[in-house]
């Protein structure tokens, strides 16, 4: 089989916390994740990633706690399972100041902030990064987040996507429709900074939102940030097909990835877009070495610090199932719930017991792990691209910054030698770099309906 030659897109996957995906590794003597609350941790990481020509740093986030496993936060707190966790937006400007090209994908829940002020927050970041901001749209799956914000309970799964659809409509009106490009003149002689004739009020009356006002920011380089999304349920894929430009998936192997990729692209076509309007990234952990023996020794060392139980506490929150209640080989009654439906369905399909899960979580995560020398890793990545039909990878950290620096120093030169990875950044904003077209959304994207000169719905 001839393997694909398209260039690989690459994000570093991190979070403003100690334990992110591969749990327990904060105890490793070379891991620096406990410095997550210092600015130097982020600026040094940004410079490292730009040296490796990474397309972006994708920053995950939650606004609740993982309190399902054991009915509380005992394991979550002891092992720092995404707790404590800081605001993911605050350090982006500092990272942008020490880089020129690295993109920043930030996760923010649609229930976290009203769209009117959120639009300004993202426009501000797009201005300050020179058009390098992306937004990972999440609807939330933690009941603890809603209890913390309002004392209420988490809305039903599909209902959360209904809310997100209208949230996006309001944002498109603000980002795309409120200001013409010609509005900002900066004309000292005539004393006109912005021409009011080119600024229009947004009026929206919907089921969830009632908004009347002007977007507070002038048009940023991208207007709408690059739109990321990770929903894998039927409703999530429909949402991604309509809105998302980059979609993150989890898959155990290239065959499973291919099934997800084709379903996502089919949804994009159904929404009037092109299949390649969506770039699909799969999450992977990579342990490279100068030799296979070195890589395997490093993996064994990492395993001695990992916490499978911490990974299980994370997975309990993902599924809404308290796995602490079950024996190692006791059947687990998986059923559709109100958390991450795709995670529950995948575990149910395979009939995983607690023993099975702990075995898969031996590195603190259920992500696929690639271990080997540069040639072995490059072969496997190339197979994921060709057979899995993905466009790139979300590279999770195991030991930070080692996981990223090892990949940059060992794997990337091999990928470049094969013509699979860029040797320099393209010019333009993040969207232009990813898609090889303009900085703004293409006309076939649903946001176009809210641009000046098109008929808007009230």
Automatic annotation (TrEMBL):
Could you state a single Gene Ontology molecular function term?
Answer: oxidoreductase activity, acting on paired donors, with incorporation or reduction of molecular oxygen
Full protein name: N5,N10-methylene tetrahydromethanopterin reductase
Q: Looking at the keywords, is Oxidoreductase present?
A: yes
Domain Luciferase-like: from-to ranges: 30-384
Q: Name one Pfam family in it.
A: Bac_luciferase
The similarity comment for this entry is:
Belongs to the NtaA/SnaA/DszA monooxygenase family.
Looking at the UniProt entry, the stretches that span the membrane are none
- Is Transferase among this UniProt entry's keywords? no
